[in-house]
Amino acid sequence: MSDSAPARIDSPGRLNREQALDLYLHAPTATLGRMADGVRRGKHPDGIVTYIIDRNVNYTNVCVARCRFCAFYRDVGSSEGYALGFDEIFRKIDETIRVGGVQLLLQGGHNPDIPLEWYEDLFRQVKARYPQFRLHALSPPEVIHISRLSRLPVRDVIARLIAAGLDSIPGGGAEILVDRVRRILNCYGKATADEWLDVMREAHHAGLRTTATMMYGTVETVEERLEHLFRLRDLQDETGGFTAFITWSYQPEHTELGGVEATGVDYLRTLAIARLVLDNFDNLQASWVTQGGRVGQLSLAYGANDMGSVMIEENVVRAAGAEYCMDEFEVVRNIENAGFVPKRRNMHYEILGDPFFREQDVPRMRELAVARADGRPGEASDLRGYDARSASGKRARKGELRTSEPAS
Ligand code: SF4
What global pTM score does this model have? Predict the structure, then answer.
């Protein structure tokens, strides 16, 4: 991207596609940053930068979707596949609550051996044990996968999940919302651009708030990145259901697609143009998990007003090579050092208070946890009470295959 050509930066009102492309391609990076920072300041004049303490739990790595950019999934029947048990998930929630956490971000592979009833039972049990704890769970492609498995419309699946305790839906699986790109990445089958947006539309109509994401840096053009942003803006105009937008760069290590990671400047320019296009989104998160703390901190000058999640566990981008880790102490240090006031929030961006570690002693977490810290793969035994769809899953549940017990 060139910094040399002149940019039209004084267009009044809402950016259109042509103006956005002109800025994205030609505006100097510092100018884009100043413009995005102006929008951030207009929406958040109090100088507060928020963050949430939650835990990113990936309940299974078994997946039939086989996206070409993904280093996390394992095929059905793989000896490295796992599915967590309820007790393991409860233990993770207990640990999360001890460090001030308020929700689980629960996402996983498209595992044909985990039916809708498993999610309903899990959600009900979580809510019975932890009534205040929030479930931010199941990205749109997972909802579509469950809908196909259960042969129920997306609307009914969402209604049943809400009845069981679902609080909100994370915006994962959006990648780039252009079908040409999705076909190349082999994620067209899991959800087309329209299908992803339709799940979010249904969720918003059902009263749920959701986030929106964009993973850039694979095979898309600059115009396709912008198409993604404009499609999100259109849906937000329609429903107003998105709380926040998060963008991160593709992590190429250990993936079938390969390639190189986008640079830090590309990230900051992409964040800034998103802040300018998405004028109907209140919040933009910094993606320090993929960019590291230093670029994450810089994001606060390029349109971000939120540091996202204090990471306790991460398995997906970690599998693709990103291993950045910041506990609450580090997140707060980065926010304050950038001249902002740190506040804890929930998924609805309601302020919960000052940093938790200043209210009570919490253990420092200098390393990310993983789903199965002891490296044992396998299905938890409580899955055997549910119908399996795959041949290997059916055999395992009849006891013909050895499966691991949950780590305790
Ligand atoms: S990105 Fe998600 S849906 Fe795609 S292969 Fe990985 S786990 Fe499966």
Answer: 0.92
